[in-house]
Amino acid sequence: MAESGGGGGCCPPMDLMRSETMQLVQLIVPMESAHLTVSYLGDLGLVQFKDLNSEKSPFQRTYAAQIKRCGEMARKIRFFRDQMSKAGVPAKEMQGKENDIDLDDVEVKLGELEAELVEINANNDKLQRSYNELMEYKLVLQKAGEFFSSAHRSAADQQRETESQQAGEDLLESPLLQEEKSIDSTKQVKLGFLTGLVPREKSMVFERILFRATRGNIFIRQTVIEEPVIDPNSGEKAEKNVFVVFYSGERAKSKILKICEAFGANRYPFSEDLGRQAQMITEVSGRLSELKTTIDAGLGQRNILLQTIGDKFELWNLKVRKEKAIYHTLNMLSLDVTKKCLVAEGWSPVFASREIQDALQRAAVDSNSQVGSIFQVLRTKESPPTYFRTNKFTSAIQEIVDAYGVAKYQEANPGVFTIVTFPFLFAVMFGDWGHGICILLATMYLILKEKKLASQKLGDIMEMAFGGRYVILMMSLFSIYTGLIYNEFFSIPFPLFAPSAYDCRDVSCSEATTIGLIKVRDTYPFGLDPVWHGSRSELPFLNSLKMKMSILLGVSQMNLGIIMSYFNARFFKSSVNIWFQFIPQMIFLNSLFGYLSVLIIIKWCTGSQADLYHVMIYMFLSPMDELGENQLFPHQKTLQLVLLFLALVSVPCMLLPKPFILKKQHEARHQGQAYAPLDETDESLHVETNGGGSHGHEEFEFSEIFVHQLIHTIEFVLGAVSNTASYLRLWALSLAHSELSSVFYEKVLLLAWGYNNPLILIVGVLVFIFATVGVLLVMETLSAFLHALRLHWVEFQNKFYEGDGYKFAPFTFIFTANEDE
Length: 821
What we know:
- This protein is of the alpha+beta class.
- The strands form 4 sheets. Strands 1, 2, 9, 10 and 11 form a 5-stranded antiparallel beta sheet that branches.
- It starts with 21 loop residues before the first strand and ends in a 25-residue tail after the last helix.
- It contains 23 helices and 13 strands.
- The radius of gyration is 42 Å and the shape is extended.
- α3 packs antiparallel against α7 and α10 crosses α22.
- β9 and β10 form a beta hairpin.
- Among the domains are: 88 residues, 2-Layer Sandwich (Alpha-Beta Plaits), CATH 3.30.70; 140 residues, Alpha-Beta Plaits; 172 residues, no CATH class.
- Its main location: membrane.
- It is found in: Vacuole membrane.
- It is a multi-pass membrane protein.
- One of its GO terms (biological process) is vacuolar proton-transporting V-type ATPase complex assembly.
C-alpha cells in the first residue's frame, strides 16, 4: 500500500496531498557512541523510535539509574525555579551551549547550591517565625496592658468613691462595715489569667466553648487588632483578636489550655505589674529591630545566591532535560546478545536517510568509537505514521484537520483544500468588509509582534488566537472580499465601483418594491447593487440569492470530496472503490443536487419565473406530469426521468457488488488461485491486515462486510440530502450577521444621532462599539468558525477521509526548552 506511487496515466501524483513516504529503519549502535548518537538524532528530529523493551518495567531497563539521577537534578531545578519565582529573580537568557558543560559538574554544582539555599531558607524561616511571634507578643502586651491599666484606673476610681460614701455615713454603722470588710478580705479567691491571640473568625465560638467548658466560671475580654498579623505557624496574614481570660483553679486552667490549643490560639506570658509591662515592651521592641536587621541580611544573601543560579539556570535546565530525554530514548533500545551494541528500530521519512547516516557517522567520530553504527531499512506490514511537513502558515490548518482524525498513511490530505475553502466558507457567513478590516487589523498586530508574543505566556484564549493567526488572516481577507460582494460596510452600502444602475421614478419609490426603480445605467460591475439595501424587496432578494448560492457551494464541495475519494482509490489501486463507490456516488449526487444546481444557474441566466421547489418535489412524486410554466429548457421532463432512473440504479450499485467482490478476492487469495486481486483489495482490509502483524490468514466475515457496506450506503443516500440542507447554514448565518449589523446601526447609532444631544450621542456610539465588538466581532466570528468547521469535518471530509492514522512523533529537542515537565 505504502510503496505504491501516485496514480499513473491521466492522474497527477498529488505529492503535496500525500504524507511523506516513511520507512522502518534499524540502527545498530556501539555502546560507547550510543549516547552521542541519540543526542545527534534528537537534534535532527526525524526518527520516531519504537519501544523494544515494552515488556520490561521502568526499573528493569538499562539506564534506570541515569534517569533517576536526571530526575533528581530536575527536581532541584524545579526547586530553584520556585524559589526564584517567589523572590522575583528572573532567569537570564541562555549563554553558551549545553554541550560545553559536563553533567557530573552540573550535578555537583546543583547539590552544593541546593544545600546552601535550603540552609539559608531554614535559618530565615526560624528568624521569621521568631519575628512573627515577637510581633504578636508586642501586640498582646499593648492591648492587654491597655485593658489592665483601664481596669486599675476604674478600680481606683471606684475605691475612692466608696471611701467618700463611707465617710459621710452614720458612725454607728462604721464598726459593722469594718467587720464585714475584714470578713470579706479573708474569703478573697486568687484569680489567674491567660493572654494570647485567637483568629477573629473563631473568636465567638472560642468564647462560647470556654464558657460552656468552665460552666461560666471565667471572665473573658477580647480586643480587635485593626491590621492583619502574620501567623507564626502558617506564615500567612490573618485577622486576630487579643484575649484575656480570668479563671479560678488549676482544673479550669487545664481546660482553657486545651481549648486554646484546639483553636490555634497563641498564648503569651503577661505580668500584672505596669512597670514590668513597660520593660517587656521595650525589650521586645529591641529584639524585633535586631531580628529585622538579621532577616534583611539573610534575604540579601539569598537574593545574591538566586541571581547566581539565574545566570546559569536556563543552561542547566536545558542540559538536564536533554539528558533525561536521551536516557529515556536509550531505554527503548534493546541490547544485542554480546551486550556491546544497542539495537534501535524506528520510523523515519525516506528523504531523511542521508541526514540520519551523516548523524550516525559524526557520532562515531566524535565519541572515538572503533566501530561505526549500522543503518538498514526493514520491510514490514505495519502501517507507518503520518507525517506532513508544515510551516507556520499551514500548521494551524493541519491542526484543524487532525482534530477530526489523523490521516491514514498517504491518504489524501484535506488540508490542501481547507487552506482556501475554510476561510472562504467562513467569509460567506461573515460577509462585511468593515468587520473584515477590524479582524485584519487585530491579526496584523499578532503577526507583526509574533516573535515577542511567541516567547511570552499568553492566556488560553489568546494562545489559541495567536496559534491560528494566519487562519484568522485568511478569514479576514475573504470576509473583506465577500463583504465587497454583499456591499456591506457595517451594514452600510457604498457605490464603490460605479453608480447604481437604477434610479427612482418618484420620491416614494424607496418605500415601494423594485417596480418603482428604472434601470438607467449599465449593470453594477462587482457585487450587489447598493440600491437593493433599504428597499422592501431587499430581504426576499437576498434570501433567494444567498440560499441558491449556498446550495451551489455545498454541491461543489461535496463533489470535490467524492472526486478525492477517486484519487485515493487510484493511489491505493482499489478498482472496487472506483467502480462501485466513486461512480455510483457521483451519479447519485449529481442526478439530484447537481441537476438542481444546473437549474439554479439556468434560472439566473434566463430570468425565468420557474418554481424550483415544485420542479424538484414533483420530480419524485409525479415524474410523468408535464412541467408547464416551470419548464426551463426543451426535453427537461425526459432528462429528469433519466436522472431519476440513474439515481435509483446507483443505490444498489453502491450496496451489492462490493461485498461479493471482496469475498471472491479473499477466497482466491487464500486458495492460491490468483495473486493479482491483492492490489485491488479495499484499503480498510489492508489496515486490518497490517495491524495484525504476522497473521497469515485474516478472518473474513461476509456478514460484517455486508452490514458495513449497507450502513455506508444508507449514510451516503440520506447524507446527500441532509448535507445539502446543512449547507443552507451559509445562508442563515449570513442573513443573521447582516440583520444584526443593520439593527445595531439603525436602532443604536442612528437613533442616538437623531436626538441632537452630545451625551446621548456619546452613549450611543459606545453602545454601538461594544455591541459590534462583543456580538459581531467575537460571538459571530466564533459561531461562523464553528459552522465552517462542521461543514468541513462532516459534509466534506466524510466523502473520502478515513482519518484513522497516527501522527509521526519523532524524538526531538525542539520543544524541550519550552515545555514544563
